[in-house]
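Progress note, sequence design subtask.
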């Protein structure tokens, strides 16, 4: 019998996750790499030179047009008061369980209110949906260990 390579993919353990994303600065570095993979680009004029301003989370000001932006502007984290460490851990918890996690359990695990957990859950689920919609399945599709509603 063949070993299913997808089923045995190495995931990211909680200790590995904490090593990589356990501090706010580690999360900011990861977010910066995802938002600006080729370095900072001003969303207003496209210039790549900036100055750092420090008001709460680091803000960047374009040296050409003086447009200011923050690391979380234009992302699902926009306007959040929660630390990025809670957001990253929430995304990890939502994606590592085969049968998902409830909003209430997300609230308990992160130590945040149910309303904040529900908002986080919906924002992350929406982003996952939008990404999956752009990559539809085709050809023969085989599934294993799927949970489809009910008991």
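Output:
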């Amino acid at each position: 019998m063949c070993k299913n390579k997808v089923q045995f993919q190495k995931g990211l353990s909680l200790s590995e996750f904490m090593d990589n994303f356990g501090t706010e600065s580690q999360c900011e570095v990861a977010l910066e790499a995802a938002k600006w993979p080729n370095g900072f680009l001003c969303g207003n004029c496209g210039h790549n030179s900036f100055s750092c301003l420090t008001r709460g989370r680091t803000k960047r000001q374009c040296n050409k047009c003086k447009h200011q932006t923050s690391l979380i502007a234009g992302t699902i984290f926009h306007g959040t008061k929660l630390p990025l460490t809670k957001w990253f851990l929430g995304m990890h918890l939502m994606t590592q369980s085969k049968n998902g996690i409830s909003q209430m359990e997300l609230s308990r695990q992160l130590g945040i209110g149910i309303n904040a957990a529900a908002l986080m859950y919906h924002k992350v689920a929406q982003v996952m949906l939008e990404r999956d919609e752009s990559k539809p399945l085709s050809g023969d599709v085989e599934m294993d260990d799927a949970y489809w509603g009910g008991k």
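The helical segments are 14-21, 24-35, 84-96, 103-110, 114-133. Work on this subtask will continue into the next period as scheduled.
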